[in-house]
Amino acid sequence: LGERVRLKTWDKYRGGLDVKGDMTGRHSYYTIYEGHEIMFHVSTMLPFSKDNKQQVERKRHIGNDIVNIVFLEGDTEDMTAFSPSYIKSQFTHIFALVIYHSEDSSYRLHVYSEESVPLFGPSLSGSCVFHNHDEFREFLLVKLINGEKATLNTPTFSQKRERTLDMLIRDLYQEHINDNRGTMLNRRAFSDVLPDPPKSTRRKEEARQVEFVRFGQALKLDTIVKGDAPTSLATTGLFKRTPWEPECYYPDFPHEVVCGDSWGDARIMAATHEGVYVMDGEHPEGVAHRQIFDKSVQVKQLNCVEAHGILLIRVDKGRDSKIHVFRLLDFEGDPTSPSFEERIRSKADLKDHKLERTKGCNLYAISRPGGSHLRMVVSVGRKLVVLQWRHSAAWTAWCPGSDTDTVDGFHYLREITVSETPTLMTLVDSALAPSAGGVGDNHICVGYKHQWDLVNERTGELTKLHHVDSNKVNLVSAIDIYEDDEPELLLCYNNTCHFQKLTEDCSTEFDFQWNSVPEAIVCAFPYILAFTRDSIEIRLVINGNLVQTMVMPNLIFVTNKSDIFFATTAPEFFSLRQERVKVDKLDKEPSISPPSSPQSNKEIRDRDPGASRPYRIYRIPFRSLTGASCERRCPTPTTPHHPAVLGATTPDGSGGGSVGGGVCKDNTNGRWSSSINNHLQP
Known about the structure:
Blueprint: E1 3-6, E2 27-33, E3 36-40, H1 56-62, E4 67-72, H2 76-80, E5 94-101, E6 106-114, E7 129-130, H3 133-151, H4 155-185, H5 201-225, E8 247-253, E9 257-263, E10 267-272, E11 275-280, E12 290-293, E13 299-305, E14 310-315, E15 322-327, E16 363-366, E17 373-380, E18 383-392, H6 393-398, E19 410-417, E20 424-428, E21 443-447, E22 451-456, E23 462-467, E24 475-483, E25 486-493, E26 496-501, E27 511-513, E28 520-524, E29 527-531, E30 535-540, E31 546-551, E32 556-559, E33 564-569, H7 575-584, H8 601-607, E34 615-620, H9 622-626, E35 662-664, E36 672-675
Parallel strand pairs: 4-5
Antiparallel strand pairs: 1-2, 2-3, 3-35, 5-6, 6-7, 6-36, 8-34, 9-10, 10-11, 11-12, 13-14, 14-15, 16-17, 17-18, 18-19, 20-21, 21-22, 22-23, 24-25, 25-26, 26-27, 28-29, 29-30, 30-31, 32-33, 33-34
Protein name: GTPase-activating Rap/Ran-GAP domain-like protein 3
InterPro entries: CNH_dom (IPR001180), Rap/Ran-GAP_sf (IPR035974), Rap/Ran_GAP_dom (IPR000331), Rap1_Ran_GAP (IPR050989)
Keywords: GTPase activation
């Protein structure tokens, strides 16, 4: 694996070993692989003390390594007797167990990984036997370097890195911003802002004016950083594009959208009263929408789950209402391809795709993307049926060919009875849930006529969350958000938004009002958007201040999974709107104005005076609202574990890693899973 080196006077990467007085042994092994300097901590080369039973001089190095290589003398049966729990540490997350067969001069490798470590490659072959020694050396180094880097994303290390980074940023802020501005703001008069004013009165006044301008610019910069900049014409003038300005996605859709969801980055699947359609607004040849279900399939809810390649639809047939599961692959295809065969499915095609235990359902909710497992809660009257997809998202990403199930992919977990039939449900992921590696429980936020309750997903225990004192209540949505790693819900009803914490102290004083009763709410920090039938209200999340209201006729919210999509009547069908577009057209950039409808207003009316007005689909990219191409909501927080397993430190002291009981210079909890084949066990 490496070359034997003399530690004294060693001038390269030392991995925490002493290179001056032979305090950690005289020799060790060192190598460089693809720019990674690796110093191995070899147990038999570290100092040994007959009087010290703990052998601290050895444990302080090997016990602080992320990856350990264990060489076992014996045969294959002896490998099965090895257990990572034999070695106690808080940092070692990966063991590589190696055995040598002298009969055929081959090596056999087993890899053990702590459950919280993400998947890493390269995958092991079926036999796990290597006859080529050079090939095995390269495979082992690559496997364990990747394993160490993957371990840095576990809660044990990631939260330490985040905490260290947070402290460094706070120190920088206090050193370079707070001191200077704090002293200026604490002055009793602005004329005293100058730290060393000139003696001359005229020069003092000139210096004061210069400092006044500089200080004002600094305050303006603070305003921009806080996210209040879009409220100023200085940053969103007539010649600049506002972050929430919609982009035309599909110019001419003939039907009113009932529900929909984005499919990947470019497509939308929309359900209407005439059937279900797929649109690709970014197709290079401008392909029109295509129908995949006819009008006999009246879809009321629809979700594309790309992580598992499935489509979920709730078909409303009264008491026979059911949820159906299809593979997204069944609807793939390029209409411009000569081999493409268009197939429109009907009610008869639903028979083999119906999900058991969902007959008579009126509502369902799924867990948000990014979780360990896809969960679904189905409301059947006063019963909540909890289901879970059999494969994790990581498993599907690693072996997509093995996740081909439809209705068989969901397995039943439990059934919970509530007091009334829910009108609204939201799944709230817990940082301490078993799916996140903890021991806590996930919850379900259930909305009824006048109140919200929080239901424990495992025990069914119900907690009163929020009651609305009003004769007429219209529940809009419940959005799960996180503040300082604490779960919090944004409850929206009538024209009110209420922030509700889920900790023991559930009180909050921050509510704000919308000008109109919304039909959908979207959070995209630092903004929150409300969609009504004829407008979009944009406010700041931190204080509820109104930023802008955009009036759009016949507005229909579609989805906000990847970007925000909504439909509205094409502007050329409204004379007043058309005149305004003509006046403003030359004042804006050409890329901002949406493309015109393929068929003009006059052509459609001449052909059919009673024709319905087509809808135009718009998109608001999340990257424009948040300022970066990142998730619009904070990921589900995770909590650190305290397992009795081994650990590692890096030269910079931030908690890094090792390979084979060593430390990699390049590198920026109870239970274990044995990874003999492909590092994957379902």
